[in-house]
Amino acid sequence: MLERVSGALALVGSRTITALQGMGQAWALLMASAASLRNADVWLPHLVPQMARIGVASVPIALFIATFTGIVMSLQASYTLTGTIPVYFVGTLVGKTMILELGPVLTALTLAGRVGANISAELGTMRVTEQVDALETLAYDPLAYLVVPRVLAAILMFPIVVLLAIALGIGSGWITALQLLDMSSPEFVKGLRLFFLPWDVWFAVIKSVSFGAVVTGVGCYFGLRTERGAEGVGRSATRTVVVASMLILCLDAFWAATLL
Amino acid sequence: MSIQLLDVEKAFGPKEVLRGFTMRVEDGETAAIVGPSGSGKSVLLKHVVGLLRPDAGSVVVDGISVPELNRNGLAQLRQRIGYVFQFAALFDSMTIAENVGMGLRRMPGWDRLRIAKRVEECLALVELAGMDDRYPAQLSGGQRKRAGLARAIAPSPKYLLYDEPTTGLDPVTTSVIDRLILRMRDELGVTGLVVTHDMTSAFRVADRITLLHAGRARFTGTPSEVRAASDPVLRGFVEGDPDLYYGVGWQNEGINVGGHDHGA
Question: Does residue B1 belong to the interface with chain A, where contact is any CB pair within 8 Å?
Answer without folding.
Answer: no
